[in-house]
Write a structure and sequence with these properties.
The chain is mainly α. About 70% of the residues lie in helices and about 0% in strands. Bound molecules: fe (ii) ion.
Amino acid sequence: MRSIADQTDDELGGPGSVLVRQRRDHVELDRLLHELERTTGTAQEEVLGRIDRLVFSHAFAEETVLWPVIRRVLPDGDALTLQVEEEHQEVNELVTALERDGLDSPERSARLRRLVEVLREDVRDEEDVLFPRLQVVLGPEELRALGRRWELMRRISPTRPHPTVSRRPPGNALSGLPLSLVDRTRDLVDAGVRRAPERIAPAGRALSQGLAGVAGLIERIPLFRSGDGPPTSR
Ligand SMILES: [Fe+2]
């Protein structure tokens, strides 16, 4: 079985195929991870924010749209997707801890190192194992249809870590839209704060913190925590 990293777009089902769309994001992630390793302080925070906005909606849409298909069509789909869900759970927890403890935390550099490591492992598991297996059972037409569904879900998925919600349906599918609205509003507020004069920036930062609190409450709604098992449930 050949890694999707070594195949042409045509072999992967053409430009709209879920495999081509996935690989495109993974290449962009690799570029951002190199940038993360080269930067420090607030510049590094800014790169981390861009990684968050790429990674969380990407993974959330995998968990709601792609992994259920893999569990349906592959006999060992459950074990295969559980491994990736555990990696996603660790990424959610690492980024939550990085944001909570700030730039001066003594654990920051170890957490960043681990984050880069897990994200790279996740890409390898998907490109070398999961997607080649999916490619055997789905034709190009189905890969393109799945690509459209994944892309649509990605655009309405959360852009920040939510370690408490379920990594599996129904909890993740139900929590996706409310969390996405809160996250994307926060993204706009934070972007405004970065450009705002210093006298109004504190109000923006307070609003952003308030929205983080709202997201925390949404995450804890029992229905949104239903669907996954002990390895990934918190
Ligand atoms: Fe992916």
